[in-house]
Amino acid sequence: MLWINNLFQSPQWLWLFTALIIPIAIHLLRRSNPQQISFAALQWVQRYSQSRARRPIVDNKWLLLLRLLIVALLASLLAQPLIKREIYPQEGVILVDPRIGAGEANKFIHNSLPQLVGEGYKVLWLSPETPSVTSPPPQNVDLWKTLSALSRRADLRRAHILLINNGVPASHQALRVSPHWQWHGLDKTSTAPSPVLPSIALMGKAPSWWAPVLEDWHNNMPGLSVQTLKREETPSAEKADWLIYTGPAPLPHAVLEFVSDGGLLITDNSIPPTDNLNFVAVDNSQSAQAASMGRGSWLRYESDWYSEAFYRRADLPERLWLHWSGQDWALQHQNRGHWSANKVVAGLPVEDSEVENRRIEQLQPWLIIALLLLLAFERLIALSHPPAIMAIDSNREADHA
User: Fold this and answer.
1) Which of 80-94, 114-128, 333-347 has the lowest mean pLDDT?
2) Exposure of 145 by Cβ count < 10 A (0-12 exposed, 13-18 middle, 19+ buried)?
3) Threshold 0.70, pTM exceeds
4) Of 127, 119, 109, 99, which Cα lies nearest the Cα of 182?
5) What sign has the CA pseudo-torsion 226, 227, 228, 233?
6) What torsion do the CA atoms of 169, 215, 241, 303 make, to the nearest 10 degrees?
7) Cα–Cα distance between 296 and 298 in angstroms, integer?
8) Could you give the maximum distance between any two Cα atoms of the chain, in Å?
9) Any idea where the domains of the chain sit in the sequence?
10) Contact criterion met (CB below 8 Å) for 340 and 166
C-alpha cells in the first residue's frame, strides 16, 4: 500500500469516502407521498397513463450528483492528495550572497556575466527560500548549510553562485555542491573578520615556561588579553575565558563556579580529578585529558608542568594553544575558517542520480475553490426545485363522499 502514501499525505482519512451513501440514502428516504391539492376539473390531466405519472426512483439526479461530489471533496481535503511535477534545471539562475547589495550584484552581473543577461534570467538571494533580489536580503544565513541543501534542488543544478571572496565561514560538516555550478567571487575589503582571541587569567605562581609562551603568543596574536589573579580573588567567566590554575589542591569553590558558568579550567596533575567527572584524552599521546563541568570544561595534564619533560619542546606554544583552544567550543565557532569561490573544489559533489527531479505539491487550494463552487451550485439547484405536488379531482372526491 505504499502507492497510497505517495498519492495522499493523510491516507487514514480515505475511509470517509464511505459517506457517499449518505446523500443517496437521504434522497431515497425523501420519496414519501407528495402534497395533495384538490382541483375541480382534471379530465385533461387524467388522460395521461399511469405509467407516465410514475415518479423516478431518484428525484433531481443533478442535485444528487452535486452532493456526492461535495462529500468526495470533503474526504479528499482531509486525505490531502498530492501531485508530483517534473522539475528541470533552469539556465540563467544566479544565486547571490545576501551580504552583497542588490545594486552591486546587478553591476557585477552586467559587467562580468553579460551572457546571462537576457529574457528569462533570474537573480535570487542565496538562502533556503531563494527569494528574488528585488525583496529585502535575508539576514544571518548560514551559507555553508544553505549551499549543501540547495545542491539537491533540481531547478538549481546549473546555477551561478556569486559569493564574497574570503568571506564565507566554513562549517564542521562537509560541503555538498552541484558539479554543474559555476562559481564567481566578488572582492570586498575586510571581508574576512579578525580572529576572536580569548581572555586568559593566571591564578597562582607562573611556571617557568609561561613568560616565553606569552611572548610568542603576543608576537603572533597582538591584542591577546592576559591577567594575573590572586588566590583570594574570584574569577569570572564574563571577564576571563581561560583560567590557568597553579595553586594547591583542592580547587577553590570560586574556581569550580567559574567552570560551571562556562569557563575553561587548565591544571596539571597536582590537582586530583573528582570522582564524578569523566575525563577523555584530547590527543593520542594521552598527555592531557578533558571533562565537561556544567557549561565549561576542565583540561588536566597528567604530567607536572614544572618538569623539563613538559616544557622543553620547540612546539610548546603551538601545542598548548592547540590543546586549549580545542576545548573552547565557543571560540572555535567564532573563528571558523573562511573560504572563497575559487576554493570550493574540496566540496563533495552531489551527482544527478541523487537529485529528486520531481516536486510534490498539494492540491488543497484548488479543492477548496471547487468545494465552494459546488456548494453554491447545490444551493441554487435545491432552491429552484419546488416540492412535489399531486393534483386530485375534487369532483371525484365529492362523488366518493
Assistant:
1) 333-347
2) middle
3) no
4) 109
5) negative
6) 110
7) 7
8) 136
9) 2-83+360-400, 93-193+339-356, 199-334
10) yes
